[in-house]
Design brief:
Layout lengths: L1 E12 L2 E12 L3 E5 L6 H8 L6 E7 L11 E4 L13 H7 L3 E2 L2 E2 L5 H13 L15 H13 L5 E5 L7 H17 L3 E6 L11 E5 L3 E5 L1 H4 L2 H8 L4 E5 L2 E5 L14
Helix pairs in contact: 2-3, 2-4, 3-4, 4-5
Adenosine-5'-triphosphate binds next to helix 1.
InterPro entries: AAA+_ATPase, ABC_transporter-like_ATP-bd, ABC_transporter-like_CS, Metal_Ion_Import_ABC, P-loop_NTPase
Pfam family, one: ABC_tran
Keywords: ATP-binding, Nucleotide-binding, Ribonucleoprotein, Ribosomal protein, Transport
Length: 264
């Protein structure tokens, strides 16, 4: 089954296009890496698929339905830097919050059943031992894994992850990538992952989409990650180097954090 289908999709803010004329199809169970420089439209596309943003033209279907009718099938993991950490919640409580919205209903009470499941999911991401620690006191990699666990609480069929590796050191990146790899192999979840640095994620990406206010390229990693395509977005110094049968992309890009608020 097709998980996400877009045809001539143009997404706008107050009438002005932020991302134009995007056409692609993502089959169920596949992982798509969404690459592009600052302001390319990565978060915009993710939020539109998640039904958080509604101003668009063209066709956009999630599991064959309008994105808002597929909301219960979608898990969204925001950039961790957008979280409000003033509320002193434990790791388990943050994960349990992901169980409050299930099958289209909002439950206002964290039941025993939800807590049991939250513990199970925290263990799945390798964090059962920190369940009673305050979320804000966890390391960057642990926080990101807690947010992944929170999104898994609703058993999503489509997981949308906004920059899950940004602001993490290499060992924390490896922790998070391992969990993403485990989700891919053990749960039949379709994933779309936005990133500035594609290298740590290439192992798990079936498809790559490069955007820069419009679709530049979409296809298998070896089709999209070519010198010509990468240079067209990142300039003449960008290149793709094959290393031991794998690709390594040098784009000179780094994540520039732009805080637009948000909350837990
Ligand atoms: N709420 C908004 N209102 C108006 N314009 C917006 C809004 N959110 C994003 N934009 C604009 O849409 C464009 C795409 O932004 P978006 O955040 O999707 O890019 P991005 O690729 O995710 O960038 P980054 O990697 O920096 O997070 C930018 O020009 C941005 O300024």
């Amino acid at each position: 089954m097709t998980a996400v289908e877009a045809e001539n999709l143009t997404i706008l803010y107050e009438g002005k296009p932020a991302l134009s004329d995007v056409t692609f199809r993502l089959d169920e169970g596949k992982t798509l890496l969404l690459l592009g420089p600052n302001g390319a439209g990565k978060t915009t596309l993710l939020k539109t698929i998640a039904c958080f943003h509604r101003e668009y033209r063209g066709k956009l279907l999630v599991f064959g339905r309008d994105p808002c009718d597929a909301r219960h099938l979608i898990g969204y993991v925001p950039q961790s830097s957008s979280l409000n950490e003033r509320v002193p919640l434990t790791a388990l409580e943050v994960v349990a919050m992901g169980g409050l919205y299930r099958r289209g209903f909002v439950h206002f009470k964290i039941s025993e059943e939800i807590l049991r499941k939250a513990e199970e999911v925290l263990t799945f991401v390798g964090l059962g031992h920190v369940k009673d620690r305050l979320f804000r006191e966890l390391s960057g990699g642990q926080k990101q894994r807690v947010l992944l666990a929170r999104a898994l609480m609703s058993d999503p069929k489509l997981l949308l992850l906004d920059e899950p590796l940004s602001a993490l050191d290499p060992s924390a990146r490896a922790e998070v990538t391992n969990v993403l790899s485990k989700i891919k192999s053990e749960k039949n979840v379709t994933m779309i992952i936005t990133t500035h640095d594609i290298n740590p994620l290439l192992e798990i990406g079936d498809l790559v989409m490069l955007i820069n206010k419009r679709l530049i390229a979409f296809g298998r990693p070896e089709e999209v990650l070519t010198d010509g395509v990468i240079k067209s977005v990142y300039g003449p110094l960008a290149k793709v180097i094959p290393v031991g049968g794998k690709l390594y992309c040098i784009t000179g890009d780094f994540h520039l954090h732009r805080d637009r608020g948000g909350g837990l």
